[in-house]
Amino acid sequence: MSSDDGSDSNGWNRARGLAVKTLLLIGGALLVKRLRKSTTRWDHARFVSNSLTGEKYSKEQASRDPENYFNIRMLTCPAAELVDGSKVLYFEQAFWRSPQKPFRQRFYMVKPCPKELKCDVEQLSTYAIRDMEEYKNFCDRPKDQRPQPEEVIGDIAEHLTTIHLKRCPRGKRCLYEGSTPPGGFPNSWQNGATYCTSELAVLKNNEIHTWDRGFDDDGNQVWGQKDGPYEFKPAPTSCFNDMLSPLNFPPPPSMDRRIEGSFILQD
Questions:
Q1: I need a labelling partner for 167 at 20 to 30 A (CA). Which of 81, 146, 173, 200 fits?
Q2: What is the pTM of this model?
Q3: Beta-carbon neighbour count of residue 211 at 10 Å?
Q4: Smallest Cα–Cα separation from 70: which of 107, 34, 98?
């Protein structure tokens, strides 16, 4: 082989190697760009909405600390969708043994966070329901026996709270977390409260932590859990195996005063 042939061959190999590197760099840049675009604000909203949905219990927490936590059933399901794409979820809480008698009922509205705010999801805009009796056990009923989406939208009543969620930093157990703004939202429903605050965290495997509290003008907590959030985990497939556990029964009459209105109270 002549020296010219060797030079041509080396030159071709270098050119081919350069072309391959260029293609890899371009492909990598396009992949990174695509991945960055793959998680949109609506994707965050859908993820949070899906995480909230379903049947969850605080049974494990009640087992660890039965003095301060009850085994509460939390049930959430899709109820309607607004024209802007916002999801409306129906939410209720009840004691495990009396799911047909929820003590708390709400609508959740889940939508992306406005661009001007530094958050990922404007979640848990929470609303009262015009006729709560009509919505009892909404999620347990066949769809043709529930209020239909247009009725749901018409039954969205008073705005209660809004939580802005952010993705959790690396190293934390949660995926999303957030709270109401400083000062919370006005609330004068019970026990002399003048405002309330809410915190929420979304964890892996659709676990949800919620902490709602009410305060008076002096900043004293007058309702809500004092020791930390309720921890709700998805219902296990064997949830009926432990029906006779004392954790699954409502509190005795002497504790009724701790459950007032729509909130879980603690002295």
A1: 81
A2: 0.74
A3: 18
A4: 98
